[in-house]
Amino acid sequence: MGGDHIQLTPRQLRIIEIVKAHGPITGEDIAQKVNLTRATLRPDLAILTMSGILDARPRVGYYYSGKSSQNLIAEELKRTKVKDLKSMPVVVNENTSFYDAIVTMFTEDVGTLFVVNDEGLLSGVVSRKDFLRQALGQGDFQKMPVHVIMTRMPNVIVVEPNETVYEAAKKIIEHEIDALPVVKRVKTKDGKEGLQVIGRFTKTNITKHYVELSEGI
């Protein structure tokens, strides 16, 4: 596969066309048609087979699997892990003021802030919608702590680094949110389990990866 996305070389594209036209076809016959040795083509054939574009059967040869680009992209999204695409998290302490949190949101150009307690563990999330809703009401925004308006644990939807991009995307769609905190489970001082924020996963991460996959196929 090579890296996070499928990037086919001109030679690999040529191999696919040959297999589409003549498959099932042996590796030796493919090599003969492109005027290269079987050994030279071995890595290309391995990549195309592992990616699911070609299938191979002993004593029969290679044949085109018939999978569409969309199917290949879907399979790649189910293989790629969140840890491979996550961005840096933007966090604030739960005692940060409403005003300072808004400043952080705009200077960091994010739509969601992850809120942590004094141990540095996830205690909530706050979005632009939360700020707007509160701004339409009353309050001293210089003094009001962000924990007053945040969505609190355990009502925060999170994702772990080894979950797939597909699983993360489903959470974003199902819960109608813009970003997920990527978390690692750790023990707190009192022996309980807490969540350490190690990244963020957003709609933008998904869109960028989808575009890269589409360009690579």
Highlighted features:
alpha+beta; 217 residues; four-stranded mixed sheet; disordered N terminus; 20% strand; 8 helices; elongated; 2 domains; two-stranded antiparallel ribbon; Arc Repressor Mutant, subunit A; CBS-domain
Outline the secondary-structure elements.
Layout: H1 10-22, H2 27-33, H3 38-50, E1 54-57, E2 61-64, H4 69-79, E3 91-93, H5 98-108, E4 112-116, E5 122-127, H6 128-135, E6 151-152, H7 165-175, E7 179-187, E8 193-202, H8 203-216
Parallel strand pairs: 3-4
Antiparallel strand pairs: 1-2, 4-5, 5-6, 7-8
Helix pairs in contact: 2-3
Count of beta strands? 8
In CATH terms, the superfamily of the largest domain is CBS-domain
Count of distinct structural domains: 2
CATH class of the largest domain: Alpha Beta
The biggest beta sheet is recorded as: 4 strands, mixed
How much of the residues is beta strand, in percent?
Answer: 15-25%
